[in-house]
């Protein structure tokens, strides 16, 4: 975090400006230009933006965590396994710094927290595991295939519009819902909205499947990363 904002005038405040700007743009577009019938839309979209930004920025940064740290990788005994984890954790801090702003907006809009808020750490853990597991895979591929990071940017851009970040999943035609439900971020963002906006527990069945899939993907990602880590120095 210190390195990221070193020499910056606003420092960590920059981590709040992007989601706040996106909030203003989406609120204007879908309240004034194209009206979406979503109650308390600013809170709705702010939750989606924060969750998505954590996922997107973490995954892009994690994909370059090996190739961008050649000096560290070349040091004997350096724990390369930590680099993707540190990247995701750093962006988690930015998410947590923006959370109080979201809670203030929620309070001003007349909302209130319920006991469901105690489940928030569980959803954070699930998103953390899911993002780290993908981070291990993309970081490994980036070492031998340097276009991975660029390709990932294109995929994430498309996935952003295919994920209910600024619109409700209820607007998706029924025939497309089975495909949408394959997207773990749809269920994760939905869980955040249930807890923070509606004051309700998440869909435990859906979020349980995401957790199981993330755990399996993490096991695969670690296996691939460890197998390839012996050749990182040669590739770099």
UniProtKB/TrEMBL annotation:
Keywords: Cell inner membrane, Cell membrane, Membrane, Transmembrane, Transmembrane helix, Transport. Its main location: membrane. It is a multi-pass membrane protein. The chain crosses the membrane at residues 7-29, 41-61, 81-108, 114-139, 151-167, 204-225. One of its GO terms (molecular function) is ABC-type transporter activity. It comes from the Bacteria. PROSITE patterns: ABC_TM2. It is found in: Cell inner membrane; Cell membrane. GO terms for biological process: lipopolysaccharide transport. GO terms for cellular component: plasma membrane. InterPro entries: ABC2_TM, ABC2_TM_bact-type. Residues 10-228 form the ABC transmembrane type-2 domain. Belongs to the ABC-2 integral membrane protein family. This is Transport permease protein.
